[in-house]
Amino acid sequence: MTVTIRDARPEDEDRWRELWAAYLAFYDVTVDADITDSTWLRVFDPASAIAMRVAEIDGRTMGFALYLTHEGTWIRGRDCYLEDLFVDADARGKGVGRALMDDLVSTCKAKGWSRLYWHTSEQNRTARALYDSYVESDGHIRYRITF
Predict the structure, then answer these.
(1) Could you tell me the pTM of the whole model?
(2) For the chain, give me the number of helices (H) and strands (E)?
(3) Judging by beta carbons within 10 Å of its beta carbon (0-12, 13-18, 19+), is residue 72 exposed, middle or buried?
(4) Which sequence spans correspond to the domains of the chain?
(5) What percent of the chain is helix, strand and coil (3-state, nearest 5)?
(6) Which position among 72, 76, 89, 111 has the lowest Cβ density within 10 Å, counted as fewest Cβ atoms?
């Protein structure tokens, strides 16, 4: 099975909303619709630091990674925060999350961003194991922020 990663496009909006709603339901979170509308608009705003990458399997959108970049606060260069990474339930365990993380780490390195951060709850062992494997993989500067 091959996972293809690409930039988000306007036609991805309906699928993004579908997966986003499933993501919020899984975590039992309710978010005002205006917030998600604002997020989507920012993805395509040339002045925005928000970016979104899309994972596809056989032409079907199976996941999204949303990240934010800003000027570094500790050292010169940019920081990158993984805002959200979510995968269709049918694709979990099939490499979609790892492919999105591989892509994000590669993007950080290619652009010279100094650090990559992500947030992980103590209870989310799957995400912790995935993210921590990157910390140990090659010495690139990454941080997991636990809440």
Answers:
(1) 0.78
(2) 4, 6
(3) middle
(4) 3-132
(5) 40, 30, 25
(6) 76
Q: Tell me what the pLDDT averaged over the chain comes to.
A: 79
* DSSP secondary structure code for residue 94 in this structure: T
CA distance 57 to 4: 6
Class of domain 3-132: alpha beta
Q: When comparing pLDDT for 46 and 132, which is higher?
A: 46
Structure tokens at 17: 């909303």
Higher pLDDT, 127 or 110: 110
Cα separation, 147 vs 7, whole angstroms: 29
DSSP 27-78: TT----HHHHHHHHHHHT-TT-SEEEEEEEETTEEEEEEEEEEEE-SSSSSE
Question: What pLDDT does 121 receive?
Answer: 66
Tell me which amino acid residue 74 is.
W
